[in-house]
Write a structure and sequence with these properties.
The protein is α+β, with helices and mostly antiparallel strands. The chain is 30% helix and 22% strand. The strands form 3 sheets. Strands 1-9-10-11 form a 4-stranded mixed β-sheet.
């Protein structure tokens, strides 16, 4: 907490951090029930330890994104977007559009299409999608509001610049009788200029935010076999604004599992010909649900000031802390510091033997 990065701290690779949640995630971890609980001792040649580590991963800048929408007579909206959905982005982007125009998320019908149907959209990756394409969703919502004001202007025979929009309702500021919800106007808007459509492409300035995470893990180490079992794991992460909290939790849990795999099991082994000798799911050991407890999650929200709703990418940073947290837990349990990955049973056995273990 004393040395944690904060707004204005220069990163090791040069850029200066904007507002970030390093200290906030660390404090949340320190105040968590997991960290404050006691760690029971083990027996039968096994020892237990607890480790903590923080990690950071930058987000790509927003990049290019495009969204096209059309309003149906019942007020629902067809939304076409070009970001391939590999982790819930279709829902989170629809939710940002819905928030902008005052509708329920269920009123947005999202479709992911290709470049024959939508403007070029950059890759789904680099933790950019919810930020970058979400930014486009907000801009599209603003474009829809402007167009709907023009339609209301014709329907009510009043100046468009005298129409306000707030909490999903359009109103003429000089006559309280002239007002209607987004859905009510949608049923009439086609009579004042044809179908209502909008298409927006964006390439926002500013950063996707970058994000910090702090993890706490309890392990049990078998001194005889070198096997490391995870007893409990808690991931704390700054999500900026968690648009879809359950999806954020899923991203955090999936990233933790991958990070645990890197820390304890996963390793490429090649022969002299350059062929991978453990190229099967039997020999290349990725963690399964049988290997792990439920990953506990704590979402911290430090809004990203580069986004209208404070969004940060969340998909990559949970992979970063696990190896360090595991190494710290193994050290706490055994007094032996491992510095090479994976910390597999043979390596743990060797380290223990070299240190009188």
């Amino acid at each position: 907490v004393k040395n944690g990065a904060k707004e204005g701290t220069r990163r090791a690779d040069g850029p200066v951090h904007p507002r970030i949640g390093c200290i906030e995630t660390t404090e949340a971890a320190l105040n968590s029930e997991h960290y404050r609980s006691s760690l029971a001792k083990s027996g039968n040649g096994k020892v237990r330890g607890r480790g903590v580590a923080s990690g950071y991963w930058f987000n790509f800048n927003g990049g290019r994104s495009a969204i096209s929408v059309s309003i149906n007579p019942d007020g629902t909206i067809n939304m076409l977007e070009g970001s391939t959905d590999i982790g819930g982005s279709r829902a989170s982007i629809a939710m940002q559009l819905a928030e902008t125009i005052g509708l329920e998320a269920t009123d947005i019908k999202p479709y992911v299409v290709d470049t024959d149907s939508i403007g070029y959209t950059d890759v789904t990756g680099g933790s950019r999608t919810t930020f970058g394409t979400g930014y486009a969703a907000h801009a599209t919502g603003q474009a829809l509001i402007r167009e709907m004001k023009e339609r209301a202007s014709k329907l009510w025979d009043v100046p468009a610049d005298a129409i306000d929009f707030e909490d999903g309702v359009f109103s003429y500021r000089d006559d309280a009788e002239k007002r209607g919800s987004f859905k009510e106007l949608a049923s009439q808007a086609g009579d004042a200029g044809g179908p209502v459509v909008a298409q927006v492409s964006t390439n926002p300035d500013g950063s996707g935010g970058g994000a910090f995470a702090t993890h706490v893990v309890d392990v049990e180490v078998d001194r005889e076999t070198g096997k490391v079992d995870i007893l409990r794991y808690t991931a704390v992460q700054d999500a900026g604004t968690a648009i879809h909290p359950s999806y954020v939790e899923g991203q955090m849990q999936g990233g933790v599992v991958q990070g645990i795999g890197w820390g304890l099991n996963e390793e490429y082994i090649y022969n002299d010909d350059g062929s991978m000798t453990n190229a099967s799911f039997l020999d290349y050991r990725m963690p399964t649900t049988l290997d792990l407890p439920m990953i506990e999650t704590i979402i911290v929200e430090v809004p990203n000031e580069s986004h209208p709703y404070g969004v940060r990418g969340v998909g990559e940073v949970p992979i970063v802390p696990p190896p360090a947290a595991l190494a710290n837990a193994i050290y706490d349990a055994t007094g032996v510091r491992l510095r090479d990955l994976p910390m597999s049973p043979p390596r743990v056995q060797k380290a223990l033997a070299e240190n009188g273990g």
